[in-house]
């Protein structure tokens, strides 16, 4: 069986080399591209593998690349690499159909998990985005669990969650809610604990799938 193919798109040569080394060591077949336009020129059919792309790049950025791939009929699952403060862009990408996003700097295991998950789903999350598990019993069990945990949040915790998913920083959220950034951090910790999200990335992913973003 051929190794899984990952198309890596990033304008930073050091990042490309670092990711290539990690993925090659993990047994992936890796193709590197310095720009989304190069990927679009070289992609062959039939479609194989997945795309790992930076979301902020000069010229054709990650979101525009995703749209071009879909317009051209390519159905590769796509994982976005994002920088600090790019949560709103990641949410937009997932709404368009991207499988996942991962925040830089990331550790190798987190990246591998994101790619394995994307390849297993084949570009489809397979989950009904409606947030009401009682009305939609076919929801993925993990998403059902997440939606049930949302019901345990207080009104203030839910407000903080909504602002986190919208990409707000602790200072911004505090200003909007009339509380201190430190208090926002306390509420954020409670939200993470109650929803059992290990990272902000995971929290945002489930929130998007549950139709909260």
TrEMBL record:
PROSITE patterns per record: HTH_LUXR_2, RESPONSE_REGULATORY
Entry keyword Transcription: yes
SUPFAM superfamilies in the record: C-terminal effector domain of the bipartite response regulators (SSF46894), CheY-like (SSF52172)
Biological-process GO terms, alphabetical: phosphorelay signal transduction system; regulation of DNA-templated transcription
Molecular function via GO: DNA binding
Domain Response regulatory, residue spans: 5-119
Keywords: DNA-binding, Phosphoprotein, Transcription, Transcription regulation, Two-component regulatory system
Residues with the 4-aspartylphosphate modification: 54
Keyword field contains DNA-binding: yes
Signal peptide as annotated in the record: none
Domain HTH luxR-type, residue spans: 146-211
Entry superkingdom: Bacteria
Protein name: Two component transcriptional regulator, LuxR family
Native source species: Methylorubrum populi (strain ATCC BAA-705 / NCIMB 13946 / BJ001)
């Amino acid at each position: 069986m051929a190794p899984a193919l990952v198309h890596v798109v990033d304008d930073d040569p050091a990042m490309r080399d670092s990711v290539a080394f990690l993925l090659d060591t993990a047994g992936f077949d890796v193709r590197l591209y310095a720009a989304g336009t190069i990927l679009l020129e070289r992609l062959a059919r039939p479609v194989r593998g997945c795309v790992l792309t930076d979301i902020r790049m000069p010229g054709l950025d990650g979101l525009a690349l995703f749209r071009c791939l879909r317009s051209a009929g390519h159905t590769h699952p796509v994982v976005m690499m994002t920088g600090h403060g790019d949560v709103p862009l990641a949410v937009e990408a997932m709404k368009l159909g991207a499988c996942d996003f991962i925040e830089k700097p990331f550790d190798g295991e987190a990246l591998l998990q994101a790619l394995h998950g994307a390849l297993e789903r084949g570009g489809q999350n397979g989950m009904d985005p409606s947030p009401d598990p009682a009305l939609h019993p076919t929801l993925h069990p993990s998403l059902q669990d997440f939606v049930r945990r949302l019901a345990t949040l207080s009104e203030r915790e839910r407000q903080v969650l909504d602002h986190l998913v919208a990409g707000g920083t602790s200072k911004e959220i505090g200003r909007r809610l009339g509380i201190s950034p430190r208090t926002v951090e306390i509420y954020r910790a409670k939200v993470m604990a109650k929803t059992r999200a290990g990272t902000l990335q995971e929290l945002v992913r489930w929130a998007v799938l549950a139709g909260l973003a």
